[in-house]
Design goal:
The chain is of the alpha+beta class and 449 residues long. It folds into 3 domains: 153 residues, no CATH class; 75 residues, ATP-grasp fold, A domain (Dna Ligase, domain 1), CATH 3.30.1490; 87 residues, 2-Layer Sandwich (D-amino Acid Aminotransferase, Chain A, domain 1), CATH 3.30.470. It has 17 helices and 16 strands. Helix 11 runs antiparallel to helix 12. The radius of gyration is 22 Å and the shape is globular. The relative contact order is 0.13.
């Protein structure tokens, strides 16, 4: 069976040996959402810097014939470590002057020399997701996009599209309403008021919210009324009558799932995987693979993926599609909570999973928070985690799949927060839990430099 890199190229270019230029422009939703009405939100500059340095995930998604554009040069010891594991790395292109608050595509556009270098490649441009910014880079370099246009990508990534697609296909989803106008939102709130009055929760979602932003949980009619008035006033003031929100019942669940399929230019859908979301204290921390599902549950997701793939292809989309789903307390499925027609966090784990997770093993992809007082190199972290890093296929330990996020929040003097991303591999949940606990303990040491 072909590996994921080959399958991806066959789907988005039509040639399994094509060369791709990868852009890890995480949270592309921020670009799609510009000019849209939003809910109140708070974001920190340090958090944006870490998210923008998630571009390094693309390093392990690409193959040796590919190229990756990064905001900063990877740690040399980290690259040596990957090569030592037998990973054939792509050609890396680093932007000349990265801005922590810009994503990698914006940095690339601001670097004329890099644009010129890319223009000389015989390759296609592929991204985490395509917005008008990626279209501008494609135009500047002359590289064809291995993706639909930005307008199509924005439409199919809307939560309004997800709800209406599931309704059209007769797929189970929580009670809810998709709203394009203030009048529809008012009617949705009126209908949802009965749920709130019965003690149930209602959630309001921006159509293009991401990573927990653009979502409000309502538990009282007063809160619902206040939020509606705020949105209506915002719309009136802007003169832009179109809105895009979903209002849904907050339903009970047993497990969160993420599954992925790839839609080819020819409309053929390939089911890639299903993973179980790993949470701590209700906060999403990563993915467990494989998901603990019955054969019938997996079959239902495969069937759903085929239906969604045909719908997306008919609407002009091809490429990677991630879908969030849930298992209810009675083991029934909500097979579509939302569609993310772009790369997902779990997408970047696939090549490492194929290479390093042996038969009968399980894996847990997660990140570790690090409180730092100064920048730290990979060699120091490797020493800190001596005996806990993965050394070979079939072994036990942590495979680091992004080191750039460790130091991304550094701002000269003063403490900052970093994240170390990796995939834990082992033969049982108990074994992984023990390694995970030891890693957490070692990384919790203070005053690391």
């Amino acid at each position: 069976m072909d590996d994921f890199n080959t399958r991806l190229k066959r789907a988005v270019v039509g040639e399994p040996d094509a060369s791709l230029v990868f852009l890890g422009n995480f949270e592309v939703e921020e670009q799609w959402a510009r000019g849209e009405h939003t809910l109140p939100r708070v974001s920190a500059a340090s958090g944006s810097a870490v998210v923008n340095h998630m571009d390094e995930f693309a390093l392990l998604l690409a193959g040796p014939a590919d190229h990756v554009v990064l905001k900063a040069a990877p740690d040399a010891d980290y690259l040596d470590h990957l090569v030592g594991l037998g990973i054939a790395l792509p050609t890396v292109h680093v932007v000349a002057d990265q801005d922590p608050l810009r994503n990698v595509t914006e940095d690339a556009l601001a670097d004329p020399a890099l644009v010129e270098r890319l223009s000389g490649l015989d390759a296609h441009l592929t991204a985490h997701g395509v917005s008008e910014v990626e279209e501008r880079l494609a135009a500047a370099t002359g590289l064809p996009l291995a993706a639909p246009d930005a307008a199509t990508c924005k439409v199919v990534n809307s939560k309004v599209y997800s709800r209406r697609a599931a309704d059209e296909l007769g797929l189970r989803q929580p009670t809810g309403w998709a709203c394009d106008t203030v009048e529809q939102l008012e009617a949705a709130f009126a209908a949802a008021a009965g749920l709130v009055e019965r003690g149930e929760k209602v959630v309001v979602k921006e159509a293009l919210g991401v990573s927990g932003k653009g979502i409000a949980v309502l538990e009282s009619p007063r809160r619902m009324d206040r939020l509606f008035r705020m949105i209506a006033k915002q719309v009136e003031k802007s003169g832009q009558p179109r809105i895009a929100f979903c209002v849904e019942n907050w339903v009970a669940k047993k497990t969160d799932l993420n599954y992925q399929f790839t839609v080819g230019r020819d409309g053929v859908t390939h089911f890639d995987f299903v993973k179980e979301l790993y949470t701590e204290g209700g906060v999403h921390k990563g993915h467990r693979m494989p998901a603990r599902l019955s054969g019938a549950q997996v079959d239902e997701l495969v069937h759903t993926a085929n239906l969604l793939g045909k719908k997306l292809a008919a609407d002009g989309y091809f490429g990677v599609v991630g879908v969030d789903a849930m298992v209810d307390p009675d083991d029934g499925l909500y097979p579509v909570i939302e569609i993310n027609a772009r790369n997902n966090m779990s997408t970047y784990q696939v090549p490492s999973q194929e290479r390093f997770v042996g038969a009968g093993q399980i894996a847990l992809a997660r990140h570790y928070p690090m409180r730092l007082t100064g920048e730290v190199g990979f060699a120091a972290v490797r020493e800190q985690l001596d005996g806990l890093l993965l050394e070979r296929r079939g072994g036990t330990g942590l495979l680091v799949n992004n080191f750039a996020t460790v130091n991304a929040g550094a701002r000269g003097d003063g403490a900052f927060d970093g994240r170390l991303y990796g995939i834990l591999v082992g033969t049982s949940d108990e074994e992984i839990a023990a390694v995970d606990a030891e890693i957490t303990t070692r990384l919790a040491e203070e005053d690391r430099r």
